Amino acid sequence: MYSFDYTKPTDLSAAVDSLGTEGAQAMGGGQTLIPVLKQRLSQPSILVDLSGIESLKGIRRMGDMLVIGAGTTHGAVAGSSDVSGAIAGLTELAGKIGDPQVRNRGTIGGSLANNDPAACYPSAALALGATIETNKREIAADDFFQGLYATALEEGEVITAVKFPIPVASTYQKFEQPASRFSLTSVFLAKMADGSVRVGVTGAGADGVFRHAGLEQALSANFAASAVDGVEVSAEGMSNDLHATPEFRANLVKVMTKRAVEALS
User: How far apart are CA 80 and CA 90, in angstroms?
Assistant: First the structure.
């Protein structure tokens, strides 16, 4: 690494002030940023560690919403009875991230802000129709993710919490790359209170996380694994790398969606 200043504020206003410094970089759990710093792919002048801000942590149910603070770790989400009782798919998702070391450091806010194309949480945010709260505003998940590692966050804007509508049922089906444990292609499926079905896909898209309208329409009309068979999932727009071809990933989208339906049937 190289020389930079470091600060660990204990309140959000101090963090926002520090992030106003030219070249400042926010850090949640550091599970993505620290390796990036080691490779000198990012060179901030000051690192603003958000892990000391207690107001960004915690899980609470508010009516038909589950609210998770941005600084809440994956491990805390995976082990929360409030989460498992409201959105079982989130419990599955958080428990499948990395290993215990990663789960006890990485945070939901950091995952969403980084928007890695193979990250798990973005698929849940899209499938559940979550709202991302920041120190400035609220952003619908459908508007938040804007391509590879790109989000609607502005300079100095910090995620403070995520509000998830509580579905009738949900599940997360992950096909992981065994070495990294990132998603090769994974599907978060949610049956919503209005009868609609939403499908968030991560790890497959060349432009990052996405919803699949055809699968959502078919499953909203007929929630059965057989309904997936009649849906075309194109290889166009899928990632192509040493792990899998676009065609393989397109097929996996259908396979993982069928597994999700079967898990909830």
Answer: 10
- Verify that 192 and 138 share a domain, yes or no: no
Query: What's 202's domain CATH number?
Result: 3.30.390.50
Handedness of CA 37, 41, 47, 48 (dihedral sign): negative
Task: Please indicate, yes or no, whether residues 159 and 231 belong to a single structural domain of this protein.
Answer: no
Element (H, E) at 164: strand 159-165
Question: What's the pLDDT tens digit per position in 6-50?
Answer: 899 999 999 999 988 888 888 888 777 777 778 777 788 888 899
For 13, the enclosing helix (H) or strand (E) is helix 12-19
Check: CB of residue 112 under 8 Å from CB of residue 161.
Answer: no
Same domain, 155 and 224: no
Determine how β-strand 46-49 pairs with β-strand 24-27. parallel
Asked if residues 135 and 12 have their Cβ atoms less than 8 Å apart, the reply is: yes
In angstroms, how far apart are the furthest CA atoms of the chain?
A: 58
CA dihedral 100, 96, 145, 168 (to 10 degrees): -130
pLDDT digits (tens, 9 = 90+) for 131-172: 999 999 999 999 999 999 999 999 889 999 999 999 999 999
Domain hosting 65: range is 54-165
Q: Determine whether 137 is exposed, middle or buried from the number of CB atoms within 10 Å of its CB (0-12, 13-18, 19+).
A: exposed
Q: Is the pTM of this model over 0.85?
A: yes
How far CA 191 is from CA of 87, 178, 199, 219, in Å, comes to 11, 29, 9, 9
The Cα–Cα gap between 201 and 209 comes to: 6
Tokens 């194309």 correspond to what residue?
A: 117
Task: Write a three-state SS string for 128-151.
Answer: HCCEEEECCCEEEHHHHECCCCCE
